[in-house]
Amino acid sequence: xxxxxxxxxxxxxxxxxxxxxxxxxxxxxxxxxxxxxxxxxxxxxxxxxxxxxxxxxxxxxxxxxxxxxxxxxxxxxxxxxxxxxxxxxxxxxxxxxxxxxxxxxxxxxxxxxxxxxxxxxxxxxxxxxxxxxxxxxxxxxxxxxxxxxxxxxxxxxxxxxxxxxxxxxxxxx
Length: 173
Description:
The chain is of the alpha/beta class and about 170 residues long. The protein has a single domain, classed as Rossmann fold, CATH 3.40.50. About 25% of the residues lie in helices and about 30% in strands. Strands 2, 3, 4, 5, 6, 7 and 8 form a seven-stranded mixed beta sheet that branches. Strands 1-10-9 form a three-stranded antiparallel beta sheet, covered by helices on one side. Helix 1 packs across helix 2. It is globular. The model has no long low-confidence stretch (mean pLDDT about 90).
């Protein structure tokens, strides 16, 4: 059995940051009404953040998006839409959630889909925004920024591996 990836961000640090972020999002002038996690990478982060928001008095409806950009590679490719948002988001304040924002193309595609479905507002939140200088998008909120490693865990994977790790780890090239 191969060694697990080294810890970049611990489970306890992630939990603290999620709680702080929930406090900020709950205090927005127009708090979110619907969470729109991008599958598959955002499901762990989305579950944690949605529970933290519920503790702050902001229970959210859920509208899953399923977009695929990596497949089994470490570099993004064409974005496939496997499940688009329904009109359920029409007129609502949507919290768009993803695990990692690398170049931003998945985020831009998800925003376009939510706008087409009629979302009133879209607030983007990711676990990690890499802040690439040539990124097409930047998240409104992120637990961590400026990470340059290839990361796994906390819902994110490397060709299907390590998604279930409770921490964010880095994978060597």
